[in-house]
Design goal:
The chain is an alpha+beta fold. It contains two helices and seven strands.
Length: 101
Amino acid sequence: MASRLKLHDEFETILGSKNVYYQPPASMHLKFPCIVYKKRAMDTQYADNLAYIHKQSYTVTVIDKDPDSEIPTRVAEMKLCRSENCFCVNNLYHDVFVLYY
């Protein structure tokens, strides 16, 4: 199974539902709570002037109506994940993370 599809399955497990969206178009109607993620730049590490490790990074946003949701904590506990930002728009709480997977 492709790495991104494994990641998608992990998000569905964390969320406990199928409300996980990969790079959704703006016209898509999201169901909450949900996890939205999109590709970011790939991180490359070098040795002896040669690329030897490539890690894909993703911006992961947990969107929930509950300000005290446990979902962001579960995402934050993933390996190579860091919190980036949090904000509220239209009574929906957004927690943004950067994840290397």
